[in-house]
Amino acid sequence: MDQATTPATMRAISQDVAGGPDVLTLVETPRPVPGRGEVLVRVHAAGVNPADWKIRARGVFTDGTRPPFTLGFDVAGVVEALGDGVTIFEVGDEVFGMPRFPRPAGAYAEYVTAPARHFAPRPRNLTRLQAGALPLAGLTAWQALVDTADVRPGRRVLIHAAAGGVGHLAVQIAKARGAYVIGTASAAKHDLLRSLGADELIDYRTTDYAETLRDVDVVLDSLGGPEWSRSLRTLRPGGTLVTILPPDGTFPAEEAEAAGVRAVFMLVEPDHAGLRELGALAEGGRLRVIADEVFPLEEAARAHALGETGRTTGKIVLSVTS
C-alpha cells in the first residue's frame, strides 16, 4: 500500500493531562508521513512497558514533551511506505522495533513513522503479538548483559525479577551466552523459569539472596533502592552490577568502587543490530517471548492498570490491527 491509498487519519491512544490510567483516551488523529530515511509502519501490536505508565503519570517525556501525546515504544507491524533514501526495507515487509526511545514514538496507534534502522525484520517464528512484546525489554536485556556486562560462558549471572518483562528474556539471553543463571522470583514462577533455562532460583519471599549468594559475576537489577547495596554483596571482586533504573541518592557508586566492583546505569537505545541478534535467537529456538495479557488498543487504560499491579509474568501487549 502506498501513501496515496493509506488512510489520512488513524486511531490512537492519547492523553491530555498527567494522571492515572483513565487519562488514556481513544482519538482520531492525522496519520504521520515518513520523512527522509524513515518508514511508515502499520502497527499490529504494541508492547506495554513500565516506562509507559511512568511517563503517563508524570505527564512528560524525558525530552520535555508534554501532553497531548501518544505513548508506546514497542512496535510490530508492516512497512506501508518508504521515505527517501530507505534501502533496507520494502513495502510489505514485516518488522519490529523500538523507535525513537526515549523520545515519543507514538506506538499506541495504527501507524508510526521512525528511522528505518530503528526496526528489523520480524522473526519468522514469532507472532506479531510476540514480536510487539519483544523490542524494549529484549534490547534492555541484550544491551545490559552483552554490550555492558560482556556475559560469557561460565559467568554467574543474577537476574532480579526474573519472570518479568525484561527478566524472562534476560534469563534466556544469559543462558544462550553460556552463563550460569540465577533468578529471583516468587516460588509460583520457578517452573516457568526453569523451562526458560534458569539454573538456580531464589524465592525472594522466603530466602535472603544477599546472605546466601556469593561469587556472582553480573547482577542485572530492575528493583533499585536498597537492593542496589544488597546486590553488591553478592558480587565477586571485578564483578558488575547493571541497573536499568536511573540512579538516585541511594545508588552505591562509592560503595561499589570500595568493594572493587563496577556499578553502572544503562539506558536502552534503538538498536538495529541488537534487534537482529534477538531475532536470530528467537528463530533458533533459544528465545521465547511470553505475552502475559493481550488487550485491544481501546483498552489501553486496562492494560496500564494491570501493569501497575506488578503481578504480571512476561509482557502486556496491545492488539492494534488484525
Which regions have little confidence, pLDDT < 50, spanning 5+ residues? none
Backbone structural class: alpha/beta
CATH architecture of the largest domain: Alpha-Beta Complex
The fraction of residues in strands falls at 25-35%
**What is the CA-CA span between the terminal residues?**
16 Å
Report the CATH superfamily of the largest domain. Answer: Medium-chain alcohol dehydrogenases, catalytic domain
Kindly state the number of beta strands: 15
CATH class of the largest domain: Alpha Beta
Largest sheet: 7 strands, mixed
Q: What sequence of helices (H) and strands (E) makes up the elements?
A: EEEHEEEEHHEHEHEHEHEHEHEHE
Query: Can you tell me the number of structural domains?
Result: 2
The radius of gyration over CA amounts to 20 Å
Helix share, percent: 25-40%
Description:
By secondary structure, the protein is of the alpha/beta class. It has two domains: 9-134 and 289-319, Quinone Oxidoreductase, Chain A, domain 1, CATH 3.90.180.10; 137-265, NAD(P)-binding Rossmann-like Domain (Rossmann fold, 3-Layer(aba) Sandwich). Helices cover 26% and strands 26% of the residues. The protein is built from ten helices and 15 strands. It has helices at 50-58, 128-133, 135-148, 165-176, 190-195, 209-212, 226-232, 253-259, 272-283, 300-307; strands at residues 9-14, 25-30, 38-48, 75-82, 94-97, 111-115, 119-121, 156-159, 180-184, 200-202, 216-221, 235-243, 262-265, 291-296, 315-319. Strands 3, 4, 5, 6, 7, 14 and 15 form a seven-stranded mixed sheet that branches. It has a six-stranded parallel sheet with strand order 10-9-8-11-12-13, sandwiched between helices. Helix 3 packs across helix 4 (165-176). The longest helix is centred in the middle third of the chain and has 14 residues, at 135-148. It is globular.
